[in-house]
Design a protein that fits this description.
By secondary structure, the protein is an alpha/beta fold. Helix content is 46%, strand content 14%. The protein folds into two domains: 208 residues, NAD(P)-binding Rossmann-like Domain (Rossmann fold), CATH 3.40.50.720; 40 residues, no CATH class. Helix 7 packs across helix 8.
Length: 268
């Protein structure tokens, strides 16, 4: 275990990648405090992780767009464990629409969760880490933080902004012994985020016309898989392997970086 007895706070921990991150951190030796707006789902996910690992996983209802909630999440971690060593800012939403017909309030909501929510997570992680002059903040970004995404302007804009946030806060917190980095995953083609038949990204992208000529969800899936040199989608394990390295002492000389986990789809 590379992270024995570290204290980790993870946002968006109720499902999908967030639950996978909590599970992997616990398996690596962390005690985990997980935040999410969906409390019943969060409690169930935390119970599964605790049962699988024998580590404590504390659920805290958290709306990352509300500062009081985010402050309370970090305060709960400090109250229970005395400190926070690792913050993983994972909470995000994606709403794909062509720019000329995009719902303006949905566009604003994406920015609010993905960018403002990251700012609040960074702010309160820094608040509790600075007195101890140590800690690691890791943002879950996207390959869309490095390259524009057709009919997906809100998400890409939020992720581009997220990398600016990472670099700026990394410069600010370096003098306080705190490292700040980002992971930029590729497409999680086998996850519920993509495959949900109603609101998954395959269905959203088909409706938004992101794939020229596509008539079915399967054609959309094939289009995205064919873009990856390694010919498969990104998996939770791929992301978690890189995540564990970046939050561990093995990456002690890395800050302000945005690391691609894309199977070669994005190489910058």
């Amino acid at each position: 275990m590379m992270l024995t007895d570290k204290i980790a706070v993870v946002t968006g921990g109720a499902q999908g990648l967030g639950e996978a991150i909590c599970l992997r951190l616990a398996r690596e030796g962390c005690q985990v405090v997980a935040g999410d707006l969906k409390l019943p789902e969060l409690e169930a996910a935390c119970a599964r992780t605790a049962a699988a690992t024998g580590r404590e996983v504390l659920p805290v209802k958290t709306d990352v767009t509300q500062e009081a909630d985010v402050a309370a999440l970090f305060d709960a971690a400090v109250a229970r464990f005395g400190r926070v060593d690792i913050c993983v800012a994972n909470a995000a939403i994606l709403i794909a629409e062509p720019v000329d017909t995009a719902n303006a309030e949905k566009w604003r909501a994406v920015m609010n969760v993905n960018l403002f929510g990251n700012f609040l997570s960074f702010k309160h992680a820094a608040r509790v880490m600075k007195p101890r002059r140590s800690g690691v903040i890791l943002q879950i970004n996207s390959k869309s933080g490095k390259k524009g995404s057709k009919s997906n302007s809100a998400y890409a804009a939020s992720k581009f902004g997220g990398l600016g946030l990472v670099q700026s806060v990394a410069l600010e917190l370096a003098d306080h012994g705190i490292r700040v980095n980002a992971l930029c995953p590729g497409n999680l083609l086998d996850s519920p985020l993509w495959s949900n038949p109603e609101n998954g990204l395959f269905a959203q992208y088909l409706r938004a016309g992101k794939v020229p000529g596509a008539k079915t969800v399967e054609e959309v899936r094939r289009f995205y898989a064919d873009q990856v040199p390694l010919k498969r989608g990104c998996a939770y394990e791929d992301i978690c392997n890189a995540l564990v390295f970046l939050v561990s002492d093995q990456a002690a000389y890395m800050t302000g970086q945005a690391i691609n986990v894309t199977g070669g789809q994005e190489m910058r």
